[in-house]
Amino acid sequence: MSTLTYTIAAVERDTGLSKDVLRVWERRYGFPNPSRDANGERSYPADQVERLRQIKRLMDQGHRPGKLLAAPFASLAELAPRRPDNRCPPAPDHELAELMGLIKAHDAAGFQQAMQQRLARQGLQRFVLDSVAPLAELVGGAWEAGRFEVFEEHLFTELTKRVLRQSIATLPAGRGPRLLLTSVPNEEHVLGLLMAEALFSLEGAECIPLGTQMPVIDIVRAAEAHAADIVALSFSVAFPTRQIPGLLQQLRAALSAGRELWVGGGGMARVPPIDGVRSLGGFAEAIAALADWRAAHPQQ
Amino acid sequence: MSTLTYTIAAVERDTGLSKDVLRVWERRYGFPNPSRDANGERSYPADQVERLRQIKRLMDQGHRPGKLLAAPFASLAELAPRRPDNRCPPAPDHELAELMGLIKAHDAAGFQQAMQQRLARQGLQRFVLDSVAPLAELVGGAWEAGRFEVFEEHLFTELTKRVLRQSIATLPAGRGPRLLLTSVPNEEHVLGLLMAEALFSLEGAECIPLGTQMPVIDIVRAAEAHAADIVALSFSVAFPTRQIPGLLQQLRAALSAGRELWVGGGGMARVPPIDGVRSLGGFAEAIAALADWRAAHPQQ
DNA sequence: GATTTTATTTGTCCAGGACAAAAGAGGTGA
DNA sequence: TCACCTCTTTTGTCCTGGACAAATAAAATC
């Protein structure tokens, strides 16, 4: 069996590290250290790709590449999350642990059923706040610690999305404000957006879900076409922080002044405040923002 | 109001054209023709970005960049789809046209309700084959012709996904084969995958939906963990054709020989056959493939 | 201890050359 | 007319190595 190797494009695809970054790391730190094929092009062995994925994971937690690339192999799971982790780890809820166990056992049907039961018992709002949100935290943490595989996280996300969507569909049509929910290109994480949609819909807002990955100019056009009062975006931790401010400024400038711009998600934690953009630090704040809007627009 | 300009990274984000391509086009064809900012970096005006998006759209239809970049502004909607378009344009169904009209009117609730009705009347299989598939064609065509905005396509996709998912959720658990459905990184289009899931589930297969954008190695691990009989992937026309063969070969090599690999979607049309990979030209062929598998594995 | 200043780290951009895979054009034979 | 082979052009991707500004850490000052 041929040891499979990766082209630089394949590494970019599977790690999320750009070709430029891969080349400059090699030049500066000596890692990765790919061999060359007959054509002089980089050819990455699988184990280096694996290590790069681990490095990317630790970087999303706040570690710096210089340290990670210098340290040998001992940089494994020994590294604790370095992000200023204010939030205390969620209380070790036995039922949540059970749900995690179902995912780990790859029991899709069992997980979905358990989630439905929990939803029926808690109601949608508490389900989102007390079940989905902490579960997402737990799964994210387990993945960062290497206890969850990528596909296990995907399965969790996909099944949870289904439960949420199904529940949202049963809600009556909202009366306002009109909220447009989406994310920018290269930001595919939609679970946070769905949780927000559930909460906003419960509060009687009229949500227009446009899925993920809308180019900025199209977000503007959609807002005009739908006469949206508020545009709500989400950025995950995996999104390059560096690009966020420029993006939001561009969007804010293009959006008519009457429309509000709300942004949430883990990727916003390290972004400085931007004029005319409301940064939502969590779901509680999202609900508060809606109440504020209602207070400021009494007649609608 | 400042005319907003784009950095090269923003253009890549919003057009899907890589930085390398943008630079080499500029060198070879003289377009795009960005000005430079104080720092010597490219700064693209909005109208050039708009034209680039149009060019990308026409390229996905089979046009070649050399012609498109030489032609002046007359390259507008006058260019017909150049793809060997075997499929006759779907019969102008009045009801489908009505559904298109609802999207065009941005009537999300009305569209969703109309789709639900249609689903109830037709049943899931005919709904997928006779409603969703032709609608997706129509929307794609309208978008290519410039009659639909990006956000209108997104709205259609998002709402249709919801209807399909909801319907899939009501189906009883399948008995086999176990089918793992997903797509590779940078391929976010999920509607085709969902339609396939609906059809396969109707035929009694056990579908494991993992959402989109799974790195190759994780697809392999997921297949092992779930003991999947078949891995089914989808590539849209927007996915870079050039990368597909290498990707599939890598996946095929890493996947144990007993597992089948099925691939569908518009992006496969121009890909030559690959050993050990079953290319599905349409949904009818997908159903046939499942029947074949059943015939070859009688005892399960 | 809090805030400003300096130093280091780090990602992105640039130019322009090279090359192989894909697509078209042209030619040959059934 | 159609299928198949060969040659030419087109086109996307990769390469090197330099440069710089934004982000971060470290040092210095109040």
Automatic annotation (TrEMBL), chains A, B:
Q: Which InterPro entries match?
A: Cbl-bd_cap, Cobalamin-bd, Cobalamin-bd_sf, DNA-bd_dom_put_sf, MerR-type_HTH_dom, MerR_fam, Meth_synthase_dom
The B12-binding domain covers which part of the protein? 176-300
Q: Gene3D superfamilies from the xrefs? A: 1.10.1660.10, Cobalamin-binding domain, Methionine synthase domain
Entry keyword annotation includes Ribosomal protein: no
Name the PROSITE patterns for this protein: B12_BINDING, HTH_MERR_2
Q: What region holds the HTH merR-type domain?
A: 5-62
> Is Transcription regulation one of the keywords UniProt gives this record?
yes
Q: Which Pfam families match?
A: B12-binding (PF02310), B12-binding_2 (PF02607), MerR_1 (PF13411)
- Which GO molecular function, any one, fits this protein according to its record? metal ion binding
The protein's UniProt keywords, in alphabetical order, are: DNA-binding, Repressor, Transcription, Transcription regulation
Kindly give the PANTHER family that the UniProt entry links to this protein: MERR-FAMILY TRANSCRIPTIONAL REGULATOR, REDOX-CYCLING DRUG-SENSING TRANSCRIPTIONAL ACTIVATOR SOXR
Q: What is this protein called?
A: B12 binding protein
